[in-house]
């Protein structure tokens, strides 16, 4: 293998431990007077976007920030529940920057870039300090120290949390910083605006075309650099844990304008979701991975056992994760826990009416915590009822909002009966290819957070999404963007009357007019559902060459049908969610094809990419490091055409081995 000459990761020289510190000390700087003349566009205002916009504005740059929601507070980052990782070692249980780095690379099945992951681990502690200073209400121990809990794929407690609403609290912290700069006039905020395309001039990204979602008007916005912080593409599967509005349009339009798309087949299936209940559903609900910290996962030992969970005695329960992976038990990484649940259900041991669910049981935790409370209060010979009641009170304090949410959705009380869970599409490790500076293959175009591919390999460890988003926005991009903008101080203000702006705007307008003019018989929603079924059935938790080949043909046929038969209601020059949906679905269809092509090309199993042809005798993922230890970066060459570029992954600081959590 050899890295494509088109891919220069720009990784600094020197030992891994000093790459980032030396880089920060030597990177070109922009003086404060010049920063005031440089304009930066930030698309997306979740954790990555809000933190980047606030920090860059604080530094003195002129910033324009865009979100398609009515407020940045509605970014999908609020849905992250369980926590955020950081190598603080508060528990004194052996954690360190290196161990966080190692766990992340191993958890990603050795398909992530060493330098980026180590930098992420290095700045993780700074993130917690920053957020505490902002007033984020992290949970605390009795003595005042911040509390930690465990997450999958690790053997230490390094996950900081705010009950079951960590993402929301972190976003409010970033949002406060963003709004402070809006109030000071250093950020222009554009709510209800969606980016439809990027504008490249003389080989550099110089702006975007955005649509005002209220009026339908197309707008030109220019800048010296553009940051895409637009999240992941999990909604390509239709049913996922993502917010309904989450989409791939910004990243996909950048891809079509020259930004390579990396590892699109690396999507994460989260093991702890409320099972599908019927065709009426348009999204799925995540139950935080933090619940696996105290809950035990099991299925009946007898096939098709229809007894209520509480009627099945202990000796007739199969705690299959504890049985198969004794060293990590219920805290194996997400991809392994998800496949194990699927295997049990496929074998006939599933529970619930659909038989596509397993139990997540807290009865042991109630008793353990209850006994702890009895000892703490010096109560001897407590009744079993009191023990359980005290234990439930402790669990309520730690996970209460998650338990309440489960009850509201399912009608079942998880304090009385075990939860039923099943895997669902959650996070996407693939995304726009970026170098060490977070710049795409288009100069001046950056990608942050889940929108890029850089840190998680083939499987993201739980509680690392918030860590990456805030690391990119608060601590990485403020340095790395300077190395580019230092050469832009003589450029002057970018004019939006440039012919390229007019050309791209006309193309965006023509696409909208085409969508409106078809007036077929099928709604965008129905096309989305059909695409999602193809993707889940043939490029979901398990893939094989036959299914992927069929999926590519089916998606191509679906795309042709879409452009002949889609029906978009309403008008162009008004608030029209149907038009927004149609535009996003068209991009999802094209992305779905590339995902299947990427999955078909990668003849190995690793992390969230499980090819059925490549597995061990025990059903574990079987990597092919000799032939596939690379980042697959795809260059758009036209309809149904992509060229593959490879970035070879070199591991100088970690010994590559088949993952084992046994």
Automatic annotation (TrEMBL):
Domain FAD-dependent oxidoreductase 2 FAD-binding residue range list: 40-466
Enzyme Commission number(s): 1.3.5.1
Pfam families per record: FAD_binding_2 (PF00890), Succ_DH_flav_C (PF02910)
The keyword Membrane appears for this protein: yes
Localisation per UniProt entry: Cell membrane
Gene Ontology molecular function: electron transfer activity; flavin adenine dinucleotide binding; succinate dehydrogenase (quinone) activity
Origin: domain of life: Bacteria
A biological process term (GO) from this entry: anaerobic respiration
UniProt entry tagged with the keyword Oxidoreductase: yes
Similarity annotation: Belongs to the FAD-dependent oxidoreductase 2 family. FRD/SDH subfamily.
Name under which the protein is recorded: succinate dehydrogenase
Protein species of origin: Dyadobacter jejuensis
């Amino acid at each position: 293998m050899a890295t494509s000459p088109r891919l220069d990761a720009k990784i600094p020289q020197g030992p891994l431990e000093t790459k980032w510190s030396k880089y920060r000390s030597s990177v070109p700087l922009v003086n404060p007077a010049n920063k005031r003349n440089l304009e930066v566009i930030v698309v997306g205002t979740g954790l990555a976007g809000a933190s980047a916009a606030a920090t860059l504005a604080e530094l003195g740059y002129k910033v324009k920030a865009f979100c398609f929601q009515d407020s940045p507070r509605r970014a999908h980052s609020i849905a992250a529940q369980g926590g955020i990782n950081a190598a603080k070692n508060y528990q004194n249980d052996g954690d360190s920057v290196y161990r966080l780095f190692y766990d992340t690379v191993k958890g990603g099945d050795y398909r992530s870039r060493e330098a980026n992951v180590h930098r992420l681990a290095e700045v993780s502690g700074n993130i917690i300090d920053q957020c505490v200073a902002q007033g984020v209400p992290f949970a605390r121990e009795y003595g005042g120290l911040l509390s930690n809990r465990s997450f999958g794929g690790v053997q230490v407690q390094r996950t900081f949390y705010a009950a079951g609403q960590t993402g929301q609290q972190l976003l409010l912290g970033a949002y406060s910083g963003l709004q402070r700069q809006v109030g000071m006039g250093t950020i222009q905020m554009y709510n209800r605006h969606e980016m439809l395309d990027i504008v490249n001039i003389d080989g550099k990204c110089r702006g975007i075309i955005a649509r005002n979602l209220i009026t339908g008007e197309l707008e030109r916005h220019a800048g010296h650099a553009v940051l895409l912080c637009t999240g992941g593409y999990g909604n390509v599967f239709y049913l996922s844990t993502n917010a309904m509005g989450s989409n791939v349009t910004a990243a996909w339009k950048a891809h079509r304008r020259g930004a390579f798309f990396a590892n699109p087949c690396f999507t994460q299936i989260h093991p702890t979701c409320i099972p599908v209940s019927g065709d009426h559903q348009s999204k799925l609900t995540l139950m935080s991975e933090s619940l696996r910290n105290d809950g035990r996962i099991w299925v009946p030992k007898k096939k098709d056992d229809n007894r209520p969970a509480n009627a099945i005695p202990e000796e007739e329960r199969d705690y299959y994760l504890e049985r198969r992976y004794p060293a990590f038990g219920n805290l194996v990484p997400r991809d392994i826990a998800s496949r194990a649940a699927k295997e049990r259900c496929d074998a006939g041991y599933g529970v619930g009416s659909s038989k596509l669910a397993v139990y997540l049981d807290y009865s042991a935790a109630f008793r353990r915590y209850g006994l702890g409370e009895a000892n703490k209060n010096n109560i001897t010979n407590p009744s079993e009822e009191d023990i359980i009641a005290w234990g439930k009170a402790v669990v309520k304090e730690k996970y209460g909002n998650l338990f309440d949410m489960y009850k509201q959705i399912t009608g079942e009380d998880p304090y009385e009966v075990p939860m039923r869970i099943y895997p669902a599409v959650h996070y996407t490790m693939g995304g726009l290819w970026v170098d060490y500076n977070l710049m795409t293959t288009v100069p001046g175009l950056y990608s942050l957070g889940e929108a890029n591919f850089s840190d998680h390999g083939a499987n993201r460890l739980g509680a690392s999404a918030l860590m990456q988003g805030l690391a990119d926005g608060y601590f990485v991009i403020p340095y790395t963007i300077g190395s580019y903008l230092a050469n832009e101080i003589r450029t002057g203000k970018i004019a939006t009357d440039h012919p390229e702006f007019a050309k791209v705007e006309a193309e965006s307008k023509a696409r909208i007019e085409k969508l409106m003019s078809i007036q077929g018989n099928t709604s965008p929603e129905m096309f989305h559902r059909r695409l999602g079924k193809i993707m889940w059935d043939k490029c979901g938790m398990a893939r094989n060459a036959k299914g992927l080949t069929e999926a590519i043909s089916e998606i191509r046929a679906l795309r042709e049908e879409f452009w002949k038969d889609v029906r978009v209601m309403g008008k162009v020059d008004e608030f029209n969610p149907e038009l927004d949906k149609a535009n996003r679905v068209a991009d999802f269809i094209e992305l779905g094809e590339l995902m299947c092509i990427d999955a078909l090309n990668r003849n190995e199993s690793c992390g969230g990419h499980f090819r059925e042809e490549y597995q061990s005798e025990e059903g574990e993922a079987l990597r092919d490091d000799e032939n596939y230890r690379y980042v697959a970066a795809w260059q758009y060459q036209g309809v149904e055409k992509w060229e593959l570029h490879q970035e070879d992954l070199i591991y100088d600081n970690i010994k590559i081995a088949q993952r084992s959590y046994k």
